[in-house]
Amino acid sequence: MEVIRKSGQQDSVASQPSKRNVSQQTLSLRHSPDGPSKVPSRENEEDRTHGKRRSTTTTTSAARGGGGGGGAAAADDDRSSSASNVDDRSSVYRAPFIRSLFSKTPPKLNFVGDGQKVRPLPTEIQKLLRWKISAVTPLIVLRCLVRSGFKVTLEDDEEWLGFWGYLQPPGFIAVHHYQKVNHFPGTYELARKDCLHRNVSRMRKLFGKEKFDFIPKTFILPDETSELKSAFRKFRRKRAWIVKPRASSNGRGIQMAVKWRDIPVDQMVIVQRYITRPHLINKKKFDLMVYVNVTSFNPLRIYLYTDGVARFASANYSHSAKGFHNHYIHITNYNAQNHSSESKTDELRQEVMRQHNWSMKSIFWHLKNEGIDCSLIWSQIVDLVIKTIISVEWGVCRRVEDQVKCRYSCHELLGFDILLDEDLKAWLIESAFFRVCLLGSQRTVGQGLSQPRWIHDSQYKGSTSCPKRFNFIRTKQLFAFE
């Protein structure tokens, strides 16, 4: 198996006979030292879908080993058999593999965006592109996999290349070196609010408060009830608090508290100081969801996506006591705003979400027009992301060493929820496992499908579009990884 550079075109794949296992061939793709060759026609691509090779320097009949009539019949058969597998011709076809930027490194699979498809691969390679999903796999991820040439399954077998879901600690031991899973063992220490607070607090004690002063004051109940009560007595009604369950997401179970009777002291929750003076845009509160991809903890490799999502509250902000318990003023989560009184019908709900979700680039453009230096805000975001991940680095590395055969089999996609106060200081509200905060994209396989087995791209025509694949940009301020 070798990747050949075509003149004026992207990479394409040609099949070569080999004694090695086909799955090992897929993982050991190498660059061809040969020069540019002739660009294959569409007819050649269709033949290659069924594992047939065609010479670019000989005639079509010679390549097939038959006469003109037989070749025409074979072409007709190929077209009819590939019609059910290949999307319509209006799709933009991309190379199935992308050359690596580094020498002696195999190319990587090309995960394409909405309105695109990868060029068909030989049958013996295509049948290896299997991805195992679970009930929590986002539909937006599922659609991307299907467009990129994968078949997805829920079946329990070892014939998959990738998995998106949750693995219990024993499950990591069974992962082979050629398989990819979307979690590291132990990264729940970042996703759980109580664990996140403990890890950052430990680093604060080791290196000083000023180095890790990016999380609001937090108390874990019921363990720290006495400390919280002392804080209430000290500040009385000068400070507001927000109560959250330890391990929930999407705004579930959040409530505001001003008086002591508002605190559920007998429940397993965290109580966090509420930032009462956030930076506002159009009189509304907003927060930033920054997407971070960790591909390795040893060595530590962190990628930041340069364009995240800004989520707005649906009502004008006020920190007065009268509207303090109004979630549509203080909470920006999609689920909370989705059930607002302004969006009872599907049409109104979609309109509300379009108005109250901006891209992060749009936010920075707006702030720049106000004369604000956005580079200082971004540097704060980069700093708190690095320090937060470093706080769990040792524990995750220890678990990876004990439970994972190959450290490159895991990756972690996280969302960092960041709030800017009126002084433009960046505060980390929480970090969570990847969840897409765009309209209609939070649905999962368990919510949207019933007993899926093999899923083809034709099932998703006309469905909610998937944004362009995440093209994570290595942040220059991190480390010299290579």
Low-confidence stretches are 1-90, 436-442, 448-482
Shape: globular
Strand tally, please? Answer: 23
Major β-sheet profile: 8 strands, antiparallel
Element layout with pairings:
Layout: E1 2-4, E2 12-14, H1 22-27, E3 30-31, H2 42-49, H3 60-64, H4 68-82, E4 92-94, E5 97-98, E6 108-109, E7 116-118, H5 123-126, E8 130-133, H6 139-147, E9 151-153, E10 162-164, H7 169-173, E11 180-181, H8 188-191, H9 193-207, E12 218-220, H10 225-235, E13 241-245, E14 255-257, E15 269-273, E16 280-281, E17 284-297, E18 300-304, E19 309-312, H11 327-330, H12 334-338, H13 346-355, E20 357-359, H14 360-369, H15 374-390, H16 393-403, E21 412-420, E22 426-433, H17 445-448, E23 473-474
Parallel strand pairs: 1-3, 4-7, 8-9, 8-10, 10-11
Antiparallel strand pairs: 1-2, 5-6, 12-15, 13-14, 13-15, 16-17, 17-18, 17-19, 17-21, 18-23, 19-20, 21-22
Summarize the structure.
The protein has helices at 22-27, 42-49, 60-64, 68-82, 123-126, 139-147, 169-173, 188-191, 193-207, 225-235, 327-330, 334-338, 346-355, 360-369, 374-390, 393-403, 445-448; strands at residues 2-4, 12-14, 30-31, 92-94, 97-98, 108-109, 116-118, 130-133, 151-153, 162-164, 180-181, 218-220, 241-245, 255-257, 269-273, 280-281, 284-297, 300-304, 309-312, 357-359, 412-420, 426-433, 473-474. It is an alpha+beta fold and 482 residues long. Helix 2 packs across helix 4 (68-82).
